[in-house]
Specification:
single chain, 158 residues, alpha/beta, five-stranded mixed sheet, two-stranded parallel ribbon, 26% strand, elongated
């Protein structure tokens, strides 16, 4: 499988979640299963079944995170000189040409994308239109809701 781009912050967040799952949640769930077993009949023991369900979810998430980290190509944009060019990991200030509204996006990996925090996937229509462009360029974003025209105001490495 090919490498998937990820920011250094995204990798750190996944590693913290993995550590939480392995060192805190997993032992707590094992303890809950042991306590539920002491209550006797497992067929009608709701606490046991709930703990087993939590264990299944936690183990699945651990495997998912380990898989993502094994295929991640971590890119720390702060180590790259800022040239005003839009690349993976940068924060971009855009001006909507039609109404002069300003919006700020950070281009991140697929697993880090969060529209509420203005973190957009490198594979999103906006990011694909921006990659390789420079400050001052006007780009047309072909989105499902229609074409939008933006001017790249500023490119920052955070």
């Amino acid at each position: 499988m090919s490498k998937v781009p990820m920011t250094a912050q995204g990798e750190q967040a996944l590693r913290q979640e993995l550590e939480q799952l392995k060192k805190v949640d997993r032992p707590r769930i094992v303890q809950a299963i042991a306590e539920a077993r002491e209550h006797g009949d497992l067929k009608e023991n709701a606490e046991y079944h709930a703990a087993r369900e939590q264990q299944s979810f936690a183990e699945g998430r651990i495997m998912d995170i380990e898989g993502k980290l094994s295929h991640a190509q971590v890119i720390d944009v702060t180590t790259i000189a800022c040239t005003g060019k839009v690349i993976f990991g940068v924060t971009v200030d855009l001006i909507n040409v039609e109404n002069d509204d300003t919006v700020t996006y950070r281009i991140v990996g697929d697993d880090e994308a969060d529209a509420k925090q203005n973190l957009i996937s490198v594979n999103s229509p906006i990011a694909r239109a921006l990659i390789g462009k420079e400050e001052g360029d006007v780009v047309i974003v072909r989105a499902p809701g229609g074409d939008r025209e933006y001017e790249i105001d500023q490119v920052r490495h955070l």
